[in-house]
Amino acid sequence: MTLSLHCDSEHDMSVLGAKLAQALLHLQLPGLLITxxxxxxxxxxxxxxxxxxxxxxxxxxxxPSYALVEPYAIDRKSLQLKGTLQTHAYHxxxxxxxxxxxxxxxxxxxxxxxxxxxxxxWPERAPALLPRADLEIALIPVPSGRDVQLRSxxxxxxxxxxxxxxxxxRT
Length: 171
Known about the structure:
This protein is of the alpha/beta class.
């Protein structure tokens, strides 16, 4: 399944991120791999920040360009446990990734286990090492803003896009 959208501004990109977060929460934030492609300045980190804010992250959300990975704790309410569960989200930036050995040294294999929620910028820097993304997002700068292409790569990714389509229809 593919969804094409347009964002006129950074604000629109933030709104899209908030809607993606709501769709993720509706699906109870499954362990997903979401990849983001686009040139420098295309809005990848802006979109990731909006998603993480929408998931309830209140800490400073910084670009992991130098650290490679930034972890975030996300509190989720659990009706079964009558309390709060904590899920981890990982924002990974592979822009400076150059050697396959960095993959294991950074512990990326353990993070991308299908149980964690991972947002990966610059996936094209490690195509042979990344598992197939549940959702691929491409951000394409155009004179009037950004064209955004969202493509599911799994049933969970398709469910996420379906939730996003429903959210788009309500606005």
